[in-house]
Amino acid sequence: MYQSFKVKNFRCFNELTLGDLKRVNLIAGMNNVGKTALLEALFLHGGAYNPQATFKLSAFRGIENVKVNLSRLGETVWDSLFNQFDNTKSIELVGENNAGSRSLRLRVAREPVDLKKISHYISDSPEEFTGLLTSSESAQVLAVEYKENGRQTALYMVADQKGIRTEPFPLTPPFPTFFQTARLRVPFIEEAEGFSKLELQGKQDELLRVLRLIEPRLKRLAVVVESGEIMLQGDIGSARLVPLPLMGEGIARLATLMLYMSNASNGVVLIDEIENGLHHSVMAKVWKAIGEAARQYDTQIFATTHNLECIVAAHRAFIESNQHDFRLHRLERTREGLIAVTYDQEDLAAVIETSLEVR
């Protein structure tokens, strides 16, 4: 699990350090202070061996078609990842855990030494390739370098007339990392596959128990093929099974979250705007279920919210569990830039009691 995480030159962050991380971490703050961007930085770091994760971030934001325009001098398809769109600097992401440290560095490659290293991936002639790549009208390259336990590796994302690809072929990420966005819903097939894995392990009733917090009528879940579409449906006493999305946003999002957690053993699950679709009256029970599942599957949670009731519910749920493996981190904008203020159990109890602003 992450114990601390440092972000530099990514999105809205010039530099930010997040410390005292626990099993469940809730990120709060005003609009446009970087809550979602922080989750994106964690997603990139968790998928350190696969540079293609950089393009998934655009899809998370609702930008599904990334087009390569090689005619714009100095601009690259990765500019939006860099603080102030300044691609002359490097993005640095550093995570500390029990096993040590892993750092990830992203930079636009322009130097001849970089071009020479990857020339054989692009052209049979290194001299020809170097000449081409020095022009933004020919190709763009993002170098992704990671260091862990004394080992260093570099991968490259290449964008040219052939398209966008990774060289050499990316390795399997160090641990599973799932991102539940605030906007997009996971494909039905992905949800069905997650539930099928639970069934193979005989753990499908665990998901059913949690979903009943929102829909008490739910009797069972089943993977159904309908009109060629594979999806998860439930029995709520109607004449036929009902697709989860038709039961409401809350139950669909909670199902996805629990399926992610069950498939992220020793990994990380990221949830943007966790309160979406959930009534405040069930939030404490939902947080209790999240805490129990996170411990059971040895999963670390990072979620965002701008809802005070969500924060209070989480605080109370973890107090009642007698395992307060929970932290609230509030992002704040100062003259020096964005900072993170962390509240432990006592601090959070005090600010809630005195009605101070922690959203």
Kindly describe this structure:
40% of the residues are buried. The radius of gyration is 22 Å and the shape is globular. Among the domains are: 120 residues, no CATH class; 63 residues, no CATH class. Strands 2-1-4-5-6-7-8 form a 7-stranded antiparallel sheet, with helices on both faces. A 6-stranded mixed sheet has the order 9-13-14-3-15-16, sandwiched between helices. A 3-stranded antiparallel sheet has the order 10-11-12. A hairpin with a 2-residue loop joins β6 and β7. It has 359 residues and is α+β, with helices and mostly antiparallel strands. The protein starts with a strand and ends in a 6-residue tail after the last helix. Helix content is 31%, strand content 30%.
Main attributes?
359 residues; alpha+beta; 7-stranded antiparallel β-sheet; 6-stranded mixed β-sheet; 16 strands
Topology:
Elements: E1 2-10, E2 13-18, E3 24-29, H1 35-46, H2 53-60, E4 91-97, E5 100-108, H3 112-122, H4 126-133, E6 139-148, E7 151-160, E8 163-167, E9 177-180, H5 188-200, H6 204-211, E10 220-226, E11 229-235, E12 242-243, H7 249-262, E13 268-271, H8 283-297, E14 300-304, H9 308-320, E15 326-334, E16 337-343, H10 345-353
Parallel strand pairs: 3-14, 3-15, 9-13, 13-14
Antiparallel strand pairs: 1-2, 1-4, 4-5, 5-6, 6-7, 7-8, 10-11, 11-12, 15-16
Give a quick summary of the entry.
The protein is α+β, with helices and mostly antiparallel strands and 359 residues long.
Main sheet summary: 7 strands, antiparallel
> Percent of residues in beta strands?
25-35%
In percent, how helical is the residue content? 25-40%
Q: Helical region count?
A: 10
User: What is the β-strand count?
Assistant: 16
Distance between the termini: 25 Å
Quick check: average pLDDT? 87
Order of helices and strands: EEEHHEEHHEEEEHHEEEHEHEHEEH
Shape descriptor: globular
Residue windows where pLDDT falls under 50 for at least 5 positions: 124-136
Q: What is the C-alpha radius of gyration, as a whole number of Å?
A: 22 Å
Largest sheet, spatial ordering of strands: 2-1-4-5-6-7-8
Alpha-beta classification: alpha+beta
